[in-house]
Amino acid sequence: MTLFFMILLGAAMALHLATVVLSGLRYLSAPKLPASSDELPALTLLRPVCGLDAFDEDTLRSSFHLDYPDYRIIFCAAQENDPACALVRRLIAENPQVPARLMVGETPLTGNPKINNMHKGYIAAETDHIVMADSNLMLPRDYLRQLVACWDDDRVGLITSPAAGNRADDLWSAVECAFLNTHQGRWQLAADAVGLGYAQGKTLYGKRSIIDAGGGLQALGRDLAEDVAMTKLIRGQDKTVRLTKQLFYQPIGKKSFAQVWARQLRWSLIRRQGFLHLFLLEMVQGPVLPLLICLGFIAAGALPGWTAFAYLALWYGSEWALARIAGWPASLRDVAAFVLRDALIPVIWAVTWTQKGLVWRGNTVSHPAKPSRA
Questions:
Q1: What is the SS3 string spanning the chain?
Q2: d(CA 234, CA 308)
Q3: Sheet of 71-77, strands arranged across
Q4: What are φ and ψ of residue 198, in 5° steps?
Q5: Residues 267/365, Cβ–Cβ less than 8 Å
Q6: Listed range (32-46, 97-111, 152-166, 248-262) with the worst mean pLDDT
Q7: Are 67 and 183 contacting, i.e. CB atoms less than 8 angstroms apart?
C-alpha cells in the first residue's frame, strides 16, 4: 500500500509537469500565420452582446481593426433596449472601413439564450466560414489569420481557443485569472497537444456546411453550453476540434468572491453535464490529494517534514514559470491566487453535485435544453 501511494504521489507531479511543458512549448515560438493572403477565405465574425461589461468598448472595438482582407461583422442583441446596442451602433459608425451591422431579436430555438441571440446572425451570414467570438474577448490584429492558419487538415472540423485572463485589479480577479490561465488553459492546451481538443465558446471558428451537417445551431442547444454540444457535433462527423497555438486575452477588471464562485460553479456544472468522465477526474488534477498523501507519509515518519514544502514549491514554481513564459499574470499575488484557486476546486466540485441548472446573464438554463418560449 505504501508503494502504491508513493507511485500516486510521483504520478501526480509527473502529470502536472507534463501539462506545464506541453502548454509552455506552445509559447516558445510565434503562432503560425498563412503565407499569403490568397489563402484566406471570406469570413463572417459573429459577436453576440448582452449588457455592458467594463471592457466592452475596448473588446468590441477590436473587431474593426483586424488584419484580414475579407471579413464582415454581425453583432447580435436579443433586445433593442440592451445597453450594448448604442455602443455597437457608435462603433459601426466610427469604423466604416469594415462592413458591419447590428441585428436585434432572438429566435426561441433552444434553451440556450446565447444561441437564440446568435441565430439570426448565423442565418444572415453570407460566408461558409463563420467565427463566433464572445463580446468580452480582446481580438489581436492577427486573430482571424491565426484561426485560418490552424485549419490545415481535412480532418479539422473546428478551431477554438479558451480565454486567458489579464488586467486583474484585485485578488479575486487574480483568482479568476488563475482558473483561466494556469489551470483550465494549461489543461486544454496540453490536451490539444495530444489530440484531445475541446471546444470553448469564447472562440468558435467553423464552416456552416459542417455545423449544418451536424444539425445546425439548434444542435448546440442539446447541452447546457454550446461549446460542449459543438465538441460532440464535430466529433460525431469524425472530425477534430483543434485549439489555436496560444490563447487570446479576456480582460477581467474587478471581481468579487461571489462573482468568481458563481462563474466557476456554472462552468463546473457544464463540465459535469457534458463530460462526466472528465469531471470525475478533476479531484485529482490539483495538489490537494498529493499533499494529503505527502502529509500522511510525514506523519508516519516515512518522509522528512520538508518534503511537503518541496513538493508544493515544485508544483507552484513550475506553474509560475509557465505563466512567465506565456506572458500571463505572474506576480506574488498571482501565486497566492493559485493557492486560493486550488483550495476552492474541491469545494466547487462537491457543490456541483447539488446543482441542476445554471444562470447565465440573468437567464436560467437547464438540461435538456428546450426553447425558453414558443
A1: CHHHHHHHHHHHHHHHHHHHHHHHHHHCCCCCCCCCHHHCCCEEEEEEECCCCCCHHHHHHHHHCCCCCCEEEEEEECCCCCCHHHHHHHHHHHCCCCCEEEEECCCCCCCCHHHHHHHHHHHHCCCCEEEEECCCCCCCCCHHHHHHHHCCCCCEEEEECCEEEEEECCHHHHHHHHHHHHHHHHHHHHHHHCCCCCCECCEEEEEHHHHHHCCHHHHCCCCCCHHHHHHHHHHCCCCEEEECCCCEEEEEECCCHHHHHHHHHHHHHHHHHHCHHHHHCHHHCCCHHHHHHHHHHHHCCCCCCHHHHHHHHHHHHHHHHHHHHHCCCCCHHHHHHHHHHHHHHHHHHHHHCCCCEEEECCEEEECCCCCCCC
A2: 43
A3: 100-104, 71-77, 43-49, 129-133, 203-207, 156-160, 240-243
A4: -125, 140
A5: no
A6: 32-46
A7: no
Distance CA 355, CA 371 (A): 21
Looking at the whole model, is its pTM more than 0.85? yes
Angle, vertex CA 139, rays to CA 76 and CA 103, nearest 5? 10
The x, y and z cell numbers of residue 19, run together, are: 501539462
Convert the pLDDT of each residue in 265-296 to its tens digit: 999 999 999 999 999 988 888 999 999 999 99
In this predicted model, what pLDDT tens digit does every residue of 193-233 receive, in sequence order?
999 999 999 999 999 999 999 999 999 999 989 999 999 99
| Amino acid identity, position 175 | V
Q: Torsions phi, psi of 358, nearest 5?
A: -125, 160
Q: How far is CA 95 from CA 5, 71, 99, in A?
A: 61, 13, 9
Residues 6+ apart with CB under 8 A from 66: 45, 139, 141, 142, 143, 144
Place of cell 486583474: 168
Statement: residue 364 has pLDDT above 90? no
Give the Cβ contact number of residue 98 at 10 Å. Answer: 16
Question: Which of these, 170, 43, 177, lies nearest to 100 by C-alpha position?
Answer: 43
With a cut of 50, say whether residue 346 has pLDDT above it. yes
